[in-house]
Design brief:
The complex is a heterodimer of chains A (362) and B (125). Chain A is α+β, with helices and mostly antiparallel strands and 362 residues long. Chain A folds into three domains: 140 residues, Gyrase A, domain 2 (2-Layer Sandwich); 118 residues, Aminomethyltransferase beta-barrel domains (Alpha-Beta Plaits, 2-Layer Sandwich); 74 residues, Aminomethyltransferase beta-barrel domains (Elongation Factor Tu (Ef-tu), domain 3, Beta Barrel). Chain A has nine helices and 20 strands. Chain A has a six-stranded mixed sheet with strand order 11-12-13-10-4-14, sandwiched between helices. In chain A, strands 15-18-17-16-19-20 form a six-stranded antiparallel beta barrel. Chain A starts with a strand and ends in an 11-residue tail after the last strand. Chain B is of the alpha+beta class and 125 residues long. Chain B is built from four helices and nine strands; from the N terminus they run βββαβββββααβα. The termini of chain B are close together.
């Protein structure tokens, strides 16, 4: 099992460690609910060093990234970050990722840990653009500082005016003297930053940021990372997105620019858009008691019409809700459905899938 | 250090049993609630349900996942702790006070297969 540079610090903080995507990661330090609420109300610090980084350089880098990425890379300005997916020819998702543009011959792809090796192989395989492609995953550590107090905490450690790192842009700046790549991005629905640096620097910054944040900050495990992203309907690969779920079915059409350049998988999505998808990700709220979990089947009058992709009792609102892939026309708001929970049929209803409103600083 | 109470019976699957005459109160141990983390829902069986030792008794949902509660004894459920329906966190707060079900045992000799406090302590250490 791989470990991040922060492994010993997690243990010293009392984290419960679990295996995730081949990495030993902290799932919870104190309690998932407490950590979740700390990020919503103050700030939290996440070790996300398991994420993969792929560097693409070359005269044709812009055309290459545009060819493998669903969003419009040609529209990007320098220092911008863009969210989107890489697709198979079938329209299924290889991975969802962030693209960092330095200039049009230099990009960084930040991908899910669970897919990092597969993604690198995919990028190399499709490199008919004579670019240099390198897997930088082992060279970076990464932490995420998220929450309404994230900027105040980070600003104490840098002379750079963080207002100049606007939503979904990045800069190379010094934090406590250490040169880092910092973007105003995240996976919680809150304002915040993702910080990339050398293993050594990130190891030091972890403690420095926690100290700087004082009682306004907590270290946050993967448990709360998942409840936070779920509440604001951010997808997790393997759940709302997969090689058999297209971005349109997942409801992330905003990250797919069908009118822009050709990208792998586009033809399937164009057809799917014309004919409308046969199913889509919806929100479900349980009427009866219980908790809806991934993989549970969903029925309408005893006919199977879908499955749960993620479900929780949400920490912020206490609602018992789930994201679910539901066949049309049972996806309409207010539709009464049934969920099979541990061999019992429970009533649920289709609701809006933003269970909590994002609080970005744009 | 997880709390263990003398005089109770314990199952390998981390349930405790408190015996009163022919009845068994069943809950989960302190070690179990610590491992599960915050409990957000307890699925209770129905009164009069018949259950066998080793069979699924109920389920406890933590924030992350559902876990089965296995019945340590065979018998009929005569009472469920309905307070847990609205306050599942009571199991975290005091796992030995907040039993889940009361079972009328069919065969008290099944208790002999369970662990005593000292044996359970050894199991979780």
């Amino acid at each position: 099992m791989k470990t991040t540079i922060l492994n010993e610090k997690h243990r010293a903080l009392g984290a419960k460690m679990v295996e995730f995507a081949g990495w030993e990661m902290p799932i919870v330090y104190s309690s998932i609910t407490e950590e979740h609420m700390k990020v919503r109300e103050n700030a939290g610090l996440f070790d996300v060093s398991h994420m993969g980084e792929i560097c693409i350089k070359g005269d044709n880098a812009e055309a290459f990234v545009d060819y493998i990425f669903t969003n419009d890379v040609t529209s990007m300005i320098n220092n911008q970050v863009l969210y989107g997916m890489m697709l198979y020819e079938t329209g299924g998702v290889v991975d969802d990722l962030l693209v960092y543009k330095f200039h049009k011959s230099h990009y960084l792809l930040v991908v899910n840990a669970s897919n990092a090796d597969k993604d690198f192989d995919w990028v190399v395989k499709n490199n008919t653009f004579d670019c240099s492609v390198s897997n930088e995953s082992d060279n970076f550590s990464e932490i995420a500082l998220q929450g309404p107090k994230a900027q105040t905490i980070l600003q104490q450690l840098t002379d750079f005016n963080l207002d100049d790192i606007t939503f979904f842009t990045h800069q190379n700046i010094r934090i406590d003297g250490k040169l880092c790549l910092v973007s105003r991005t995240g996976y919680t629905g809150e304002d915040g930053f993702e910080i990339y640096g050398t293993h050594f620097d990130i190891d030091e910054l972890w403690s420095i940021i926690l100290k700087s944040g004082g009682e306004n900050i907590l270290p946050i495990g993967l448990g709360a990372r998942d409840t936070l992203r779920f509440e604001v309907n951010l997808p997790l690969y393997g759940h709302e997105l997969s090689d058999s779920i297209t971005p349109l079915e997942a409801g992330y059409g905003f990250a797919v620019k069908l009118e822009a350049n050709n990208f792998i998988g586009k033809d399937v999505l164009v057809k799917q858009k014309e004919t409308k998808t046969t199913r889509r990700i919806c929100g479900l709220e349980l009427v009866d008691k219980g908790i809806m979990r991934e993989g549970y089947k969903v029925y309408h009058d005893s006919k199977e019409v879908g499955f749960i992709t993620t479900g929780y009792k949400t920490p912020t609102t206490g609602r018992i809700v789930a994201l679910a892939m539901i066949d049309r026309p049972y996806d309409k708001l207010g539709t009464d459905l049934e969920v099979e929970i541990r061999n019992k049929v429970k009533k649920a209803v289709v609701v809006k899938k933003k269970f909590f409103t994002k609080n970005y600083k744009k | 250090m997880s709390k263990i109470i003398d005089g109770l019976y314990y199952a390998n699957s981390h349930e405790w049993v408190k015996v009163e005459d022919a009845f068994a109160y069943v809950g989960i141990t302190d070690y179990a609630q610590e491992s599960l983390g915050e409990i957000v829902f307890v699925e209770l069986p129905e009164e009069d349900d018949e259950i066998s030792a080793g069979g699924e008794l109920s389920a406890i949902e933590s924030v992350k996942a559902a876990s089965d509660i296995v019945s340590p004894v065979t018998g009929t459920i005569v009472m469920v702790n309905e307070e847990l329906e609205d306050s599942p966190e009571l199991v975290n707060e005091d796992p030995y006070e907040n039993w889940i079900v009361k079972i009328e045992m069919e065969n008290k000799s099944e208790l002999e297969a369970l662990l005593n406090a000292a044996e359970y302590k050894e199991l979780i250490e």
